[in-house]
Amino acid sequence: IIPNSTRTCEHVFGEFYVYLSCTGRCFNISCVLQPLRHDSCPHIPNKISTLAKNSYLTFLIEQNGKYHNNFFQCENEMCVGFDKVCNLVDDCGDKSDEKMCRNHFHCK
Questions:
Q1: Got the DSSP string for 41-76?
Q2: Residue 88 has what DSSP assignment?
Q3: Contact of 65 with 75, CB cutoff 8 Å
Q4: Percent helix, strand and coil across the chain, each to the nearest 5
Q5: pLDDT tens for each residue of the chain, 108 residues long
Q6: Which three-class secondary structure state does DSSP give residue 40?
């Protein structure tokens, strides 16, 4: 169930954490996503890019007859799905998918 008001998101992970933080439903937490450019995620094949005046608008991929743009770009330019962000696992290989998350702490 998606809350209508803001809440603590300490125990929320993955795609649900991304959704709540990016729709302003978590206390004191900003969205962990950055806009993707048309040339982002070079390892993803068959992207459909949309350009206007040589500027970024978006890219999509077609999967099972549906179009998706649910990617997080890691600092190393790899991309992972929203379900891999803030899930306590270093899916990017450079920890950038966990870096901005406030649902856990990092040991030094």
A1: -TTS-SEEEEEETTEEEEEEEEETTEEE--EEE-TT
A2: S
A3: no
A4: 15, 25, 60
A5: 667 778 888 888 888 888 888 888 888 888 888 777 777 888 888 887 766 556 656 677 888 888 878 889 999 989 998 889 999 899 999 999 998 888 776 566
A6: coil
